[in-house]
Write a structure and sequence with these properties.
The complex is a heterotetramer, with two copies of chain A (about 280 residues) and two copies of chain B (about 400 residues).
Chain A (H helix, E strand, L loop, with lengths): L1 H5 L6 H9 L2 H25 L15 H7 L2 H34 L2 H10 L2 H4 L2 H13 L12 H23 L2 H10 L4 H30 L2 H7 L6 H7 L5 H34 L1
Helix pairs in contact in A: 3-14, 4-14, 5-6, 5-9, 5-11, 5-13, 6-9, 8-12, 9-11, 10-11, 11-14
Chain B lengths: L14 H10 L23 E12 L2 E12 L3 E5 L6 H9 L6 E6 L2 E2 L10 E4 L11 H11 L4 H14 L15 H13 L5 E5 L7 H18 L2 E6 L2 H7 L2 E6 L2 E6 L1 H6 L4 H6 L4 E4 H8 L7 E4 L4 E5 L2 E2 L12 E10 L3 E8 L2 E8 L12 E6 L5 E3 L2
Parallel strand pairs in B: 3-8, 3-9, 6-7, 7-8
Antiparallel strand pairs in B: 1-2, 1-4, 4-5, 9-10, 11-12, 12-19, 13-14, 13-18, 15-16, 15-18, 16-17
The chains are: A mainly alpha (about 280), B alpha+beta (about 400).
């Protein structure tokens, strides 16, 4: 990853010299940034405002909404549930996808082609659609999981699978896995050791982004959680939805909390990954 | 400092002893690096470093290679030379244990390694595209093999430093591979293979991804290091010049077979058959009838190969480029069709007795250049004529 | 695309010969397929069953549920609305993303780096979160779009943007766009003509998959549609959600209809794309 | 059949007429292909095909190239030769209009094309990595340029077929580029550029992605086609041999400047300065003091360059490789340090009067090889000594 990032893009001098003289792209970046950031900024304003009526700026700033939120046990419980489900689904998918992707890449190229077709399926079946199917499937007999939180882990696993597989497969393609494995083995490492020391760290970037995005998606997932388990197992999003009636300031504080939480998580993930690598290389 | 140090000085005269020495190798003696410098001929008496016996590899219905038999002495530098697709790289990978064999036996010393996994073969390998670990700095890349052997960290640091010095990369120890040029990457890859003191070093076209200038420099450096360490080396290339310059012996491969195992000089000047002659140099291949006027006799062999630089031109009775060989063929009249300047060589195409001959002469001076249409006489050095089986 | 697909994967002979003798990957493929297909199969069964109680197989087969669905005007209206919104958002995003990605790739490499960071934002802000933000943003003043269907198009555009950008950027990377443009221009084509004749057809695969996946996602989107417009502009998913109380057979029929619809759409898209190329090459 | 056919037979003696002829070019006369075969010297009298006047290109603070002045005659094959990063490819792209210039003027014929967009320059280009359109079959790739010119479909088909025959790809017309080998792809790319009959053909390292054997074959083929069409060609390469073999003239580039414009032979045997000598061949560079014993006089120039193949060895008074040059320097005693067999050349490193000389001789026979330590006498051909400015 690091390699690909730092490699200077091979461009003709024109392009670069042009971009030095005028920068239309700064406008594009600014525009896109505005489009994407505006809702967030508005939410942040709302969460910090004592009152925000018809004026352009909030009337006063306060942390009261945040404090109220963080002292609500129902919120904390929902938070914990969401975390538990998301981590479970991600661990399950990582454990399954990593070896399959590695095999597909190094040994059985045909497997890769098959997987690429298969992983499109959940996309073709939108969440509400498949939740109906899942309800039917898990409603009776040996798989009577409906209404229990356990139904969410396999469901989320299914959702996250395609994304994880593509991200990991792309990372594998960027790294010459076969050669790295060969080199490590000739230097005395067994295949498993070689994988963990030499291949996995180089997939870091791709896997990390996949895990992060999946995680934030899962924490934010509402449809399945609501339809499959509902209020019996209130996840963060279900809680948020149920609180819609409450003050807009309160829900805004919730939203900001969630956002900051995922940001911190990413940052930690990044740091940890870098640390691991430095250690491994020592 | 590198390689071979774990084998006792007057190494293995019996299979048992050699085998024991080999098994002992991964736990490298800590005093090993003391006995540094010139161990080039240490093992001359201990039999072959590698023996390949009847190796064969099939892929579906096609033979990748078959009937590969070869003995390689300690400290020899062997080049597997051949066009792409001749099976040379697959053979190297089979020796490394990265590809399974369908038949045959590989001995390193007297140990049969045919069925050992790659990590237990004691074989080092340098890849065409370096295969450095992108997540590790140069020093950590090089230390990897030692860490696998659980070498204590102070000794590890010392040996890494030593080997980086050897490949002149000690200043780059704290860089990551992506910060290095291709040539530097390949040096690190070389250091990484050398530091674990392999019994055999395999190199799979290590220079072909580099550009011309660096290739030449690294070529000389590899050969120098290899000689100073007395390291048995198998080097795969498709580049004739590389093979000629680096090797003690060249194995010329063609369609999964070793056509000829010989010194670079012999491979070049005495190709065994038409395929070998076709791959090496710019031989003129004539049949016996065509060659008869030049030789002065009718060859018994089906084909006759003439080296362009072993043909002699005379203009108006004056030999061009001086003296004639001892055993010279009859002069045959010819006409210069064109010349091409290849740098230090001028290559003439000469129409001569109904055939087109290629003659190389030194580009000594523009004044000695023969114009198109010039009448010349062509002589053959009879000692340098190759008669080939067909 | 075509190029990359048909290029034989360069593998060592071992791998290929091994895969010829035993096929562990057929098990993996089978397993994944089962996991992904089971809900769909169950739904199909339900949609076609006259009744399906505690037994393993349905009691009898009927098309009654489908016929009932297809003759419901409320369903057809919701379907049309969903289509309109999805097509609108996709057209908007394609028109914006294609030129930006092309510029980022050929002229301003730094723009590409920026975009790659920016497009992660919507992922980091889950739908329910940003819908709260969007509600605040569009609630008053000049952007009073809340409750009108028009709010959905910019919203969906924001959601689809990252995905489209990545897909198109990846396609651009696989094709050497700069050289193709250069070659076409030297052969007498203007830049616009060159783009349409020589670059665009080679992005087909990537763009097509992106459009298809985005489309099926948008048609299946529920959270935004429900929160931002609600019952005032009933899209397919909102309708489906509102019909949850109805017979499971009826909703199953709805789900299957939706699925078959996206399948047909993909197939048509594929055929059309191939046809275009054959024509262009003539 | 290709190129230049739209210019009237006794082309443009006045600027006006030539300009008119150029403007007219995109609408290709339908009878053009009739006047086929050898139009090699048609335009010898019509001035230059291309003139480059003071071209300069900056990228930030660094000059990519500067002060590029050159005139190229009709039908000339020019090679831009230089190490990577010397600006040669950027110069080519600037001529094609793919990169803007900071200063200077480009004339094709007498038309100023400096500010024309690439599609209106009438210039063809072949890229290193082919740049074939992957979505089109071979025939459609080749027809692309004609379709842009709205050539009627029956004429289009005929011309595509003709040009595919020329590059020997007529059998592959219905394949897609990904079904072809590298060499075949480059042939198609060549055909695609030729079919629109460009006034100038630009080739940007077209052979460097191909493997050695195909490279040689395609090299000869390109030169043959170029000669038969009389097509003005600029060919970029970093390969000295390619430049020597293909070019009418070589422009040797170094750090954004043209060091020397000369015939291949002159570039090789008479480098203008140290940089040129350093890039071409294997010159021994000596300073005046070191060279004095070999020359017999103290050179006035700062540096003296000796070509390894223009040095003469004698053993015990007997000249090796025969005759001596007319103006020969004093014999200097030396010792063979080592020899390397490069194929048709044997390269000796000789310690001689305190300097190390490289001497190339033909690899005529193993019997004439000088062993390490052999005492020799080295003579210099005074006519081949290059005295360089520093």
């Amino acid at each position: 990853m690091a390699h690909a990032d730092t490699m200077p893009a091979h461009k003709s001098p024109t392009a670069a010299s042009l971009s030095a003289t005028f920068n239309p792209y700064s406008w594009v970046v600014g525009g896109v940034f505005a489009v994407l950031a505006l809702p967030l900024v508005a939410t942040l304003g709302y969460a910090l405002a004592t009152r925000w009526g018809a004026t352009l700026t909030p009337d006063g700033l306060t942390l009261a909404w945040f404090i109220e939120l963080w002292t609500t046990p129902r919120f904390l419980a929902a938070f914990a549930r969401s975390l538990f489900i998301a981590v479970g689904a991600l661990a399950l998918s990582l454990a399954l996808v990593l070896p399959v992707a590695l095999l597909a890449h190094t040994r059985y190229p045909r497997l890769d082609r098959w997987m690429n077709t298969l992983i499109l399926m959940p996309f073709a079946v939108p969440p509400v659609v498949s939740s109906v199917g899942l309800l039917q499937l898990y409603a009776g007999g040996p798989l009577a999981l409906v209404g229990t939180p356990w139904i969410l882990i396999p469901t989320y696993f299914t959702i996250v699978l395609p994304f994880m597989y593509r991200a990991i497969a792309n990372s594998l393609r960027a790294v010459d896995v076969q050669s790295l494995m060969d080199a490590a083995q000739l230097l005395g490492a067994g295949p498993v050791k070689a994988f963990f020391l030499v291949v996995l760290p180089n997939l870091r970037g791709g896997v990390q982004i996949a895990v992060f995005l999946s995680f934030s998606f899962l924490v934010g997932e509402f449809v399945f959680a609501n339809m499959l388990v509902g209020t019996r197992f209130e996840t963060l999003q279900v809680y948020l939805n149920n609180m819609r009636g409450a003050s807009g300031h309160f829900t805004s504080a919730l939203v900001i909390t969630l956002f900051v939480f995922t940001l911190i998580l990413t940052w930690l993930g990044n740091r940890q990954a870098e640390h691991t690598i430095t250690e491994a290389a020592r | 400092m590198m390689a071979a140090t774990t084998r006792p000085p007057s190494s293995a005269t019996t299979p048992k002893a050699s085998q024991a020495a080999y098994r002992q190798q991964p736990a490298i003696a800590s005093g090993a690096t003391a006995a540094s410098a010139s161990r080039h001929t240490d093992h001359a008496s201990s039999g072959n470093a590698i023996s390949l016996k009847g190796l064969a590899k099939r892929f579906g219905d096609t033979d990748v290679f078959a009937n590969i038999d070869a003995d390689i002495a300690h400290g020899e530098f062997i080049t597997l030379l051949g066009p792409s697709g001749c099976g040379k790289s697959t053979l190297l990978r089979a020796i490394a244990g990265l590809t399974s064999l369908n038949a045959g036996q590989i001995l390193v010393g007297d140990t049969d390694i045919t069925h050992l996994p790659p990590q237990r073969r004691g074989v080092g390998m340098v890849f065409q595209h370096y295969a450095l670990f992108p997540n590790m700095k140069v020093a950590d890349n090089v230390a990897f093999g030692l860490r696998m052997q659980k070498v204590p960290s102070d000794e590890r640091a010392r040996r890494v430093d030593e080997v980086l010095r050897l490949v002149e990369m000690q200043d780059q120890a704290h860089k990551f591979p992506h910060q290095l040029s291709g040539g530097q990457c390949q040096r690190v890859a070389l250091a990484r293979s050398l530091v674990v003191e392999p019994r055999v070093l395999l190199m799979d076209e290590p220079l072909s991804a580099l550009d011309a200038r660096i290739r030449k420099h690294l070529r000389d450096q590899i050969r120098e290091i290899q000689t100073s360490l007395g390291l048995t080396t198998l080097f795969v290339t498709h580049d004739q010049e590389e093979a000629m310059l680096m090797s003690d012996r060249v194995f010329l491969m063609h369609q999964g077979r070793i056509l000829q195992q010989d010194s670079a000089e012999a491979i070049y000047t005495r190709p065994r058959d038409e395929n070998a002659a076709g791959f090496m140099g710019h031989y003129c291949l004539l049949d016996a009838v065509e060659a008869a006027p030049l030789l002065g006799y009718r060859s018994k062999a089906g084909r006759v190969a003439l080296r362009p630089e072993a043909l002699y031109l005379s203009v108006a009775g004056m030999p061009l480029g001086g003296e004639h060989p001892e055993r010279v063929g009859p002069g045959v009249h010819g006409v210069v069709r064109r010349h091409r300047l290849l740098g230090n060589i001028v290559r003439y195409d000469i129409d001569c007795a109904g055939v087109s001959l290629t003659v190389d002469t030194l580009n000594r001076s523009a004044r000695t250049l023969l114009p198109q249409g010039q009448q010349v006489t062509v002589h053959v050095d009879l000692d340098e004529v190759q008669e080939l089986d067909t």
